[in-house]
Amino acid sequence: MDLMKPRFKMLIATMLSAALLVAGCGQKAAAPKAGEYVLKVGYSGSLCEGPVHMAYEKGFFAEEGLKVELIKLAPGTAFEAITAGQVEAGFGLLASLIQPLSNGLPIKITTGLHTGCDKVLVPKTSGINTAADLKGKRIGVPSLTSSPIIFAKRALAAAGIGVSEKNLEVEFVVFSNAELPLALQKGAIDAIAANDPVASIAAREYNLNTLLDSAVTAPYHEQYCCSAYVKDTLAKNNPEIAAKYTRAMQKASAYVAQHPDEVAKIQVEKKYVAGDAAFNAQVLKTFNYIPSVSGAYDAFGITAGELQKVGMLGANVDVPALQKNSFVTLPGVPDTVK
């Protein structure tokens, strides 16, 4: 029996360890403390992402006690990165978020950051002077789900032009951002819809007229185009982390409004954005960087309703419910920062 005791004790210890391991697997892992958490923030390098760049460069993330890893994403991959867990927070065009959110994109919008971004441009000699003049024309866009085409469709529908599949009175043609002004110059299309700074650069280099501008054309100039968002699980399990991120982004957005020349210079010097800093600063000054939670919420409802009317959002989608479910209220996040 004495020879069996060590083996028996070892067997008991092994069984006990296994039992504890199984029990532990059924428990939720403890959330990391705020000081230990490294938040993965995705960005694509666009000009209007200034709040992301400044929150990092000017210390607004650090001021909130938040450790951040900025992750550069290829254009058009932000949703995949969020879904795959590669990033937990980001900056997005509000109009482009609506349809994916209706299909289950796992994010929560936390605040609006600014207005502006989208333009529709035409040659100065085109004879196109109003949105109504685009009836029967070909419009170049960077993609069929992008913010520029959404802005164009909303403005055209408001002008009485059919933009749904059942009543399409214009033709949308996809070109890359680099190809859009060239296609316009060659006559392959009659107008282009693009984001800034692509649109502003094209207008300057190809001598184009700005027909519509979401930064100045009513009523779009009062509607938020860009917002901050977090992964839904972060908002649920670590609301303090999500709140720190949101407050930092709000502070950084207000900083962009107050220091556009400095921001543009930092963006170019730190290689967040390409181009000329002085020109980029002029574009930044056309955006209204007054971060607002309610501003984004209201713009979401307006835009979603219009997208549903033009067939870019399912007819069966409950817009008020989608609007409510797409946002989250976070502790200590102010509605507006100036």
Going across the biggest sheet, name each strand in turn.
9-6-10-5-11
User: Which structural category do the helix and sheet elements fall into?
Assistant: alpha/beta
- CATH level-four homologous superfamily name of the largest domain: Periplasmic binding protein-like II
Major sheet? 5 strands, mixed
Question: Can you tell me the number of structural domains?
Answer: 2
At CATH's second level, what is the architecture of the largest domain?
3-Layer(aba) Sandwich
Span between N and C termini? 80 Å
What is the CA-atom radius of gyration, in angstroms?
A: 24 Å
Number of helices: 14
Segments where pLDDT lies below 50 for 5+ residues? 1-32
Number of E-state strands = 12
Domain Solute-binding protein family 3/N-terminal: 38-276
InterPro entries: Solute-binding_3/MltF_N, SsuA/THI5
Keywords: Signal
Family: Belongs to the bacterial solute-binding protein SsuA/TauA family.
Brief summary of the model shown:
Helices cover 42% and strands 19% of the residues. The protein has helices spanning 4-25, 50-57, 60-63, 78-83, 94-102, 147-158, 180-185, 198-205, 232-237, 239-258, 260-269, 277-284, 293-309, 319-325; strands at residues 38-43, 67-72, 89-93, 107-115, 118-123, 138-141, 163-164, 167-168, 171-174, 191-195, 208-213, 224-231. α2 crosses α10 (239-258), α11 (260-269) crosses α12 and α13 packs antiparallel against α14.
